[in-house]
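#onboarding

Welcome to the new folks! Below is a worked example of what a typical request in this channel looks like: someone posts a single protein sequence, and someone else replies with the predicted structure as tokens. Don't worry about understanding the tokens yet, we'll cover that in week two.

Example request:
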Amino acid sequence: MKQMSTMRHILRYLKPYWFYLVCTIVLAVFSVAAQLCIPYLVGLGIDTLLGAGAVQFEALYRIFVLIGVCIAVAAAAQWLMSLCNNRIAYSVLADIRSEAFGKLGTLPLSYLDARAYGETASVIISDAEQFSDGLLLGFTQLFTGVATILGVLVIMFVMRWEVALAVVLVTPLSFFIAKYISTHTYAMFKRQAEARAAQTAFIDEAIGNLKVVKAFSHEKENEEQFAVYNDALSKASVKATFFSSTTNPTTRFVNSLAYALVALIGAFIAIATAGSATPFTAGQLSSMLSYCTQYTKPFNDISEVVTEFQNAIACAARIFALIAEEDEPSDAGNEALSHPRGEVCLRDVSFSYRPGQKLIEHLSVDVAAGKRVAIVGPTGCGKTTLINLLMRFYDVQGGSITVDGKDIRTITRRSLRAGMGMVLQDTWLKRASVRENLCMGAQVTEEEMIAAARAAHAHSFIRRLPQGYDTVIGDEGVLSQGQKQLLCIARVMLCHPPMLILDEATSNIDTRTERKVQDAFQRLMEGRTCFIVAHRLSTIENADLILVMKDGKIIEQGVHGELLRRGGFYAKLYHAQFME
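Example response:
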């Protein structure tokens, strides 16, 4: 059932290219017809050799010319068919990859958080490539193979039905072999694709964290772990390939059996009809043997196609499973958040990433427009989760979050996020020029861009880059982590959002530069609602409200001085940082 569902999906992608599909079928018929004429003409040519000194040269010359024409027609048809096949296969590949990549933008973050990035990348890249190769092989050999089998049967029955019948009786054996192998190889190729994805995910993780690996001298352990993945992939590949490769020798045995039957039966018929009004000539026997070879060869090709197609279907099933994943809840019909004031209220909010594993429970807080709210607490208390809920990366499971009195679940995500500027601890810059990275979220003038870079104290190091603002960045070593974070800060400054979220925004910046950036943030935060997640408590002393979180709940709230005087959990955190 799953294979049939996958096939229906494949046909849906083929539908836009029906013209090329029709062309492929027509060209396959022309190619096969031209090739099937050649054995018949060769047989006629043999029959012109009547004996020593008795050769019909004129007839032989005409036959040679016709054979040349047939070869030219077959070659031209196959060339054009290859163009059509390539157009279909690679267009379908491009469509599937585009849809799969586009799907990433609509998937809930919970899907991506639950899987290794390398595994998802493997589905879009490796599995799609495997599917395209199987599809191309199928179009190249399937149509010509089917047309050849049907054409040869018609010609053989017209020439000598007794010989044709012997060939047909052997045919079911080839079908049985192909069916048996194809039904068993699908599961094997599926395991191979899964093992390949696991290995790709591990490689992606190892390369992305190579500095950490080297820092902890973990190379040997990584090699051992890779050997496990590599061995699993090797075993899955060997098993699938070995089982699928049995198709060729078994079908060749059936082919040889059919060839022997044609030769034997044809020879007896030729002897029996010698001297009769309708003899079975040596040329006709030669043609029948050639047709037998042409008839059985497609079974090899089709068996190979079926085996390869099982691999393609297994890979396609993984791609379609990704595409079929449930999107994040649609906000179609929701209203856009226009000119937000920044009044944020959380009412009895509850949320957990995994059922049964509590994180945030019954959290309530009111934030007036333009206020600066700092969120502090130990690791794992739910600070970043709260930010994820404010940005609607995840939706609350209980209670509600409102902005200007509107539940954010009734607001479009695009307009909500456009109203919030966000600077994270983990920086993200695309491979592009500094200018493109800075202007990613807003259309601004050159002067405004430079002013924001100056405010974020990034202008000086940008000028020292080889091409200044036109320097392409993104690779390791071009910029330090702190410099990348300064660019991210400048980028959000250019957006002028009414609300700001700063999640450890200055964690990678030295203390001296941090003080300068804090001054820039003070100017940026004026009149804006701000949520500041910070471990360095010295950076939030001027916050209008400090929320102290522990185990997903707000256990204290107030201003800096008031919380210190209480001598509670916040005071302990603060004094622990400045004990010395």
